[in-house]
Design a protein that fits this description.
Layout lengths: L2 H8 L6 H10 L3 E4 L3 E9 L4 E10 L1 H17 L4 E4 L4 H7 L15
Parallel strand pairs: 3-4
Antiparallel strand pairs: 1-2, 2-3
Length: about 110
Amino acid sequence: MKVERLHEALEGSGWTVDQVLDGVERGDFYLFQNDGAVAVVEFIISPRHKVGHVWAAGGDLQSYLELVPIMEAFSISNGCDIAGGTGRVGWVRAMKSMGYSASPAAIEKEL
């Protein structure tokens, strides 16, 4: 695994590489990577949907885009009916060509 890519993906998230790897070991998170990118996926389950949610990604855009169909297939095979992610606004433009669109904005407040 390219740990430096995972460090990059987690920058500013408050998560450490060890915490993510522990989550992967427990089955809470799923790690996808290739030579140029890494992504961390979790499943979010609501009464209406199961979402394959990318919450951390790092590396170059083209390499990340190569991971998207793999993550989508994995999500489908695990019962997800939606794929999505959380990230900077630039991801909306980057993912549009793959059929993704913006969803309502997320807001937060540290308590």
